[in-house]
Amino acid sequence: MNISVTQMYLEEDAGYPFSSYFQKWLAGELCKRTRPSANFLKRYPGEYTLGFYISAKKGIKAPEIKGPGVYRKTRDVKYTIFIPFDPKAKYERAGYRKPLAWIMDGVVAALKGLEIDASLLVEDSSSLIEVMASDTRMIRNVDSALLEKRKRAVAKGKRAPQNAPPKSSGVPKGRKEGVGKDGQQTRRLSTRIPINMPEWTIPGNLQKLVSADGDGIWEDARWDPVLLTVMGGISYCGRAIPLAWQIEFEPVGDLFAAPNAKIEALGLEPDGYGWATLIRSVFTKYYPGSADELQFGDVELATCVVWVESESTCKLLMQIVWDLIHAS
Q1: Where are the alpha helices (DSSP H) in the chain?
Q2: Angle, to 10 degrees, between the axis of helix 20-32 and the axis of helix 119-134?
Q3: Is residue 101 part of a domain?
Q4: What sign for the dihedral angle of Cα 14, 55, 306, 240?
Q5: Same domain, 137 and 253
Q6: Is there a contact between 9 and 274 (Cβ–Cβ < 8 Å)?
Q7: 129 and 225, same structural domain?
């Protein structure tokens, strides 16, 4: 059974320093101890990959499992496992055993939901946790001196906090202040189209175009280097989605030199995950009511991928991404 494990921490200051080696090792161990159930093969005929995205969230006491997201075009079944994170906890003192146990609990829960036998994994869970907690290759090297320097700079107001866009980060222009229904001060973007951004024109017969395509997709490359893809035949958390609206891009090349430098200045890596973190941060700041619609389950190191369920949200998302790339 093909299984993948990927980390993607999108909540500010919530995450664990597990390495890419940890991801590959854990995926391999899960493959050794699981077999697709008859129910899994019936629901997902063919060679599907079962993917686990590991994320962290403050304010929860136990793992939260979201999914499955089903992507028939790429033959993927994906879960996101949110594990608790307490900024005051000293997880490293115990070799991160508690977070590792939460991860294992989340994986087991997801497997049981697919009626996949998880007995071998449960039996070996303690020994696997001990291996992960004892092997230094499982933890990324962290420059503690650099982290302390960043903390001091933030405290003095010389640098924006990690994951928060600086004042000159290229956040879409044309902001307006307003007051929400709850009386709280809010910010929103003006409805103007960012300079040089292609006009948002979608075919009136889009649903027919998607249905007629063999892969159930429609693509528009007018926003190059951002590719807009609309997909049919998608289900998420057991719910059918008529059309999924997705944008994707690879943050490389001369065009990304300036925005990537700004991302690095925020303490983020200028890769797919760093861009995903920034996009979520900026979008949540200006459109908090629609932020939960953003899905980052397909992000990779080389590619930033975001999908939503509505055209209106995708249009706002495209505007933000376009300005983050070009307003530098």
Answers
A1: 20-32, 38-43, 97-113, 119-134, 144-155, 206-212, 257-265, 272-286, 311-326
A2: 150
A3: yes
A4: negative
A5: no
A6: no
A7: no
State how far the Cα of 198 lies from the Cα of 328, in Å rounded to an integer: 18
Residue 155 in domain: no
Residue 12 sits in the same domain as residue 129: yes
Residue 272 sits in the same domain as residue 221: yes
Alpha carbon distances (Å) from 243 to 29, 85, 187, 261, 312: 35, 34, 29, 35, 12
**DSSP-H helix ranges across 139-214:** 144-155, 206-212
- Provide the number of structural domains found in the chain: 2
Dump pLDDT digits (tens) for 226-284: 999 999 888 776 678 889 999 999 999 999 999 999 988 887 788 888 899 899 889 98
The answer as to whether 237 is a domain residue is yes
| pLDDT tens column, 15-25 | 898 988 898 99
Task: Give the three-class secondary structure for 150.
Answer: helix
d(CA 223, CA 209): 20
Q: Are residues 98 and 195 in the same domain?
A: no
Is the whole model's pTM more than 0.90, yes or no? no
- Measured from the Cβ of residue 158, the count of other Cβ atoms closer than 10 Å reads 9
Domain that holds residue 229: 178-326
